[in-house]
Amino acid sequence: MISDKVKNILNEQINKEFYSAYLYLAMSAYFDDMGLYGFANWTKVQAKEEVDHGMIIFDYMIDRDTKVQLKQIDVPDMNFTSPLQVFEKILDHELYVTSSIESIANLSMDECDLATRNFINWYLKEQVEEEKNARDIITSLKLFGDEKASLYLLNDELAKREYHKHEYD
Ligand code: OFO
What we know:
Elements: H1 4-34, H2 37-63, H3 83-110, H4 114-119, H5 121-144, H6 148-158
Helix pairs in contact: 1-2, 1-3, 2-6, 3-5
Bound molecules: hydroxy diiron-OXO moiety.
Hydroxy diiron-OXO moiety binds next to helix 1, helix 2, helix 3 and helix 5.
């Protein structure tokens, strides 16, 4: 049985994952507008993965016979000024999500909910990858971002990202 505290924090996390999808979609639209279609692709694929993250928690709550409460999704700030600024926002956002996943891990331990503690490990691992992806792109943008030819090459690289449904394993 999931406690009320764990139920609430999981419901909040579903909302954060769907907000993340919204945020990445807003970024994708910005890049598309600039003609940076590879960047637009990368952020759109990420948006789809965020929906998967939300759905995995949704399914877990259903499996545990726990009430899902959907909350309003905030509108993301769409004032983007450059590819580097967008990826810095992504890193900040993912650091925030990591800390909220860590809060779930800590709360599930406090509540002796070992199933949720075990479940959330997948997200802890996922966050390491998401932070690294953002950091790597920031590094490239800082090194070469001012040169049009390099931005074009990076855009080409990001165009290769393909969406694969994120499954919980
Ligand atoms: Fe769901 O990991 Fe990004 O936000």
